[in-house]
Amino acid sequence: MKHWLLSVAALALPLAAPVEARQPAAKAPATGMVSAADPRAAAAGVEILRAGGSATDAAIATMLALNVVEPQSSGIGGGSYWVRHDARGTNTIDARETAPMAATPDWFYGPDGRPLSHADAVPGGRSVGVPGALRGMALAHAQGGKLPWARLFQPAIRLARDGFKLTPRLQTALTRYGGHVDATTRARLTGPDGQVLPLGSIIRNPEQAALLERIAKLGPDSFYVGPQAQKLVTTVNTATRNPSKMTTGDLASYAAKPRPPLCATYRGYRICSMGPSSGGGSTMLSILKLLERFDMAKLGKDSPQAWHLFAEASRLAYADRDMYLGDPDYVRVPIKGLFDPAYIASRSALIAPDRTMASVSPGTPPGAPPRVRAPVSEVPGTTDLVTVDAAGNVAEVTTTVEGSFGSGLSVDGTMLNNELTDFDIVPVKDGDLVANRVEGGKRPRSSMSPTIVYGPDGKVRLAVGAAGGATIITQVAKAIIGVIDWKLSAQDAIAQGLLFAPYKVATVEQGTSLEALVPGLQALGETVVVAPMGLKANAIERIGGRWVGAADPRSEGVAIDVTGRTSAITRVGDKPGRPAE
Fold first, then answer.
1. Does 31 or 231 have the greater pLDDT score?
2. Is 511 annotated as a binding residue?
3. Considering Cα of 97, then 101, then 106, then 107, what sign does the dihedral take?
């Protein structure tokens, strides 16, 4: 077991042989739970737990079902990050998409030699990264699966073949943000008049059912080599808009990677999240470390000063993210320096309880290479899920196709991501290369922050993750502060409104109790706007020796235990603006 010193600890676990990989299914476990953004996907995971599956098995089944019922947010055409806990400790998997090897720093430049806007770069083939989600599932299954691979696909295959009811989220996503989706996808979700089908309509996807059946039978390699890989490559390279230069070799060579988890302490709790290539875990942990010297518990959740401090810590953490975070296989990321105690103390000292910083700049942590800051354009999207099994193993997974319906392209009923627009489109700023520039084979930076929190007793206290683009980082940080400092349940911590302040202007979530704090925030020098946000989080916590689920009331999500009990969630009506996807 390997540890990073200073305030960051990492556990690097070797790739293990399958754990009881092909043993007969056991009797239904006495405990176990799934929290996901759709009840049908959560039910798929519970079905696998009841069949004797592990938390990893249940997570895979849940992801596959989300692929069917929540195609605007995730699927095997996208990527994922895993944070898992078992008897050996914590491990993480990086299944982030990669750029084709032909990608160059000017990948998103037009024929006129000028960079495309983010909106113009999204549709079509050029934004599609080599999908990693399926390889991530295969690696996770090798490490912690119990049931046969094919068994995990059965709930999703049934949903795709037999059909599922159209829900408000999917209907809204297509109506408001699906203008770029291909004709095949649109035909499946619209009527003869071209209008989106009414709520409750049964959606069937036989092409996707057949694809999942092939992968279940033939294994994950069948997606990355052979006819299936050629079909994907042809789709992106012959796209009407922004054709790509992907090859079958790009798919065949893709590998999900075990990474050391990124862990830090906060008020006696050990918090482990996803390290680079994601920038989410490090930024979320930075926010917590910068706030640790303040008495957030005493200030309370209704204090303008507490949220001002949260905003200031966010600005400092995001500034460092924009400057230094990228794919560690391509750029030097000063993770140890970012969490050096002296560096954290110097950055935290910039935060004043009674006033707002006039400007915010990245710091210079020990070991930092020369860099230039380049904020990226991220859009709400993604989905998150948490599973726990009878043995207390936990899987926290955040998975995505990036924006609504990804690139708009699909293969066999499955949407393809637009993940490459998470790169900085312009590779050079002020004469210096940016860390998150496009390069062949590289993974774009992400805000995804799947996280497991260990209590002072060393046991899992909370597993939490979120969806919603750059807000993911602050959603997770807010939930952890809510549970640890404000003694909220995970459910209430997720439901709590959000203040999102990566840069100068702080956005207060419309329709929440935080709106009442705006005058107090302004008195502290904050520039504040009130707006709806596309938020969506899921969690499972351990209270008094039992597991309790939580799901975001802004979403259609639920938490279901193996007895079929659904956690009580007070729903929030759909607000105007972008939905939580």
1. 231
2. no
3. negative
How many Cα neighbours within 13 Å face the side chain of 472? Answer: 35
Known binder of ligand: residue 84? no
Place of tokens 């084709």: 100
CB 557 within 8 Å of CB 37: yes
Residue 159 lies in a domain: yes
The structural domain count of the chain equals 1
Contacts of residue 82, Cβ cutoff 8 Å, sequence gap at least 6: 59, 92, 93, 95, 136, 140, 395, 396, 397, 450
In a domain, 86, yes or no: yes
CATH of the domain at 50: 3.60.20.40
- Gap between the Cα atoms of 227 and 577, Å rounded: 41
Q: How many angstroms separate the CA atoms of 540 and 146, rounded?
A: 22
Residue 277 marked as a ligand binder: no
User: How far is Cα 129 from Cα 416, in angstroms, rounded to an integer?
Assistant: 8
User: Has residue 501 been placed in a domain?
Assistant: yes
Q: What does the alpha-carbon distance between residue 157 and residue 514 come to, in Å, rounded to a whole number?
A: 42
Residue range 216-237: average pLDDT?
Answer: 98
Q: How many C-alpha atoms does 56 have within 13 Å on its Cβ side?
A: 27
3-class DSSP state of 110: coil
The set of residues, in sequence order, having a beta carbon less than 8 Å from that of 380 and lying 6+ positions away, is 403, 467, 468, 469, 471, 533, 534, 578, 579, 580, 581
**CA 482 vs CA 309, 490, 493, 500: distances in Å:** 14, 8, 5, 15
Give the confidence band of 215 by pLDDT, cuts at 50, 70, 90: very high
| 286-304: average pLDDT | 98
CA distances from 3 to 6, 10, 277 (A): 10, 5, 19
For residue 290, what are its two tokens? 């910068």
- Least confident range from 9-23, 169-183, 239-253, 275-289: namely 9-23
Nearest to 399 by CA among 71, 149, 90: 71
Active site residues: 382
* Domain assignment of residue 336, yes or no: no
Query: Could you say which DSSP state residue 196 is in?
Result: B
- Of 252, 74, 221, 255, whose CA–CA distance to 156 is shortest? 74
CA angle at 136 for the pair 435 and 96, rounded to the nearest 5°: 20
469: annotated binding-site residue?
Answer: yes
Note down the domain range covering 240.
Answer: 33-260+379-561
Whether residue 392 is annotated as binding a ligand: the answer is no
Q: At what angle do helices 280-291 and 341-348 cross, to 10 degrees?
A: 70
Side-by-side strand order, sheet with 527-531: 499-500, 505-509, 527-531
Quote the CA–CA distance of 327 and 128 in Å, as a whole number.
17
Question: Which run of H or of E encompasses 387?
Answer: strand 383-388
Rounded CA separation 92/397 (Å) = 10
Q: Is the pLDDT of residue 519 over 70?
A: yes
Q: Write out the E strands in 404-450.
A: 410-411, 414-415, 428-429, 432-433
